[in-house]
Amino acid sequence: MTTVTSTTTATGTTNAASSKLNADFDMFLKLLTTQMQNQDPLDPMDTAQYTQQLVQYSQVEQSIEQTATLKEMLAAFGTQNLMQASALIGAQVETSSATSGLSAATPAQWTWSATREVASMTATIKDAKGKIVDTLPIDATGAAGAFTWDGTTSAGKKVDPGLYTLELAGKDASGAAVTTTAHAYGKVTDVELDNGTVQMTINGLKVASSELLRIG
Fold first, then answer.
1. What is the pLDDT of residue 8?
2. Of the candidates 108, 148, 146, 155, the residue with the CA atom closest to the CA atom of residue 127
3. Which residues of 142-181 are buried (b: 16+ CB within 10 A; e: fewer)?
């Protein structure tokens, strides 16, 4: 499903600023007219001063209009990006995040890569609050692979659906530590535009399109 989260704050702010400027400008003209009608003929007002004030009001008005136009352009670009991202619905994607979504129908899924080949690996799974849910060994060899977790701990307990983060500790054949990185992957089920940013839902996890590493 493709959705758009409409945001009217920027437009409302621009309209409010324009209304206040117009009100202030009307008040300024009334005061200026009153001053000109009651000025001392022997000591007339300096026309340069109120001319400068008129120019300043004009510059502020132009600035507000330019800001409004820019925001309209950004909104149009955001909608265009959303339509392009909608083509990813149903596609398998890999993200830069180590957090994956777990649901009753779909397991949490990650890919992993190591700086060099590993002979063994231990996985630590944490929930959304950072609490360790389980620590278990992974049958992993080589420098890259994948890990799928259906929510069952090594003690046989089934955890609730939600977001879970994977941390990996790899070792080579000699027992030396190997730096290993995990990336979540899954199927895109929804895209939305939130404050100008295209976000995708992957098994309950929302990620920005800028976090995608691989498609397909």
1. 43
2. 108
3. eeebebebebeeeeeeebeebbbbbebbbbeeeeeebebb
Tens-digit pLDDT profile for residues 1-27:
545 444 444 555 556 666 665 666 666
Question: Could you say which DSSP state residue 157 is in?
Answer: P
Angle at 112 between CA 162 and CA 91, to 5 degrees: 65
Using CA atoms, how far apart are residues 67 and 65, in angstroms rounded to an integer? 5
Give me the helices (H) in 151-214, please. Answer: none
Residue 144, strand partner residues: 113
pLDDT at residue number 163: 96
Q: How far is CA 102 from the centre of its chain?
A: 21
Q: Give the H or E element holding residue 168.
A: strand 162-171
Q: What are phi and psi of 205, to 5 degrees?
A: -100, 125
Dihedral angle at the C-alpha atoms of 97, 103, 107, 108, nearest 10 degrees? 20
Helix (H, G, I), strand (E, B) or coil at 199: strand
Q: Look at residue 33 and give its three-state secondary structure.
A: helix
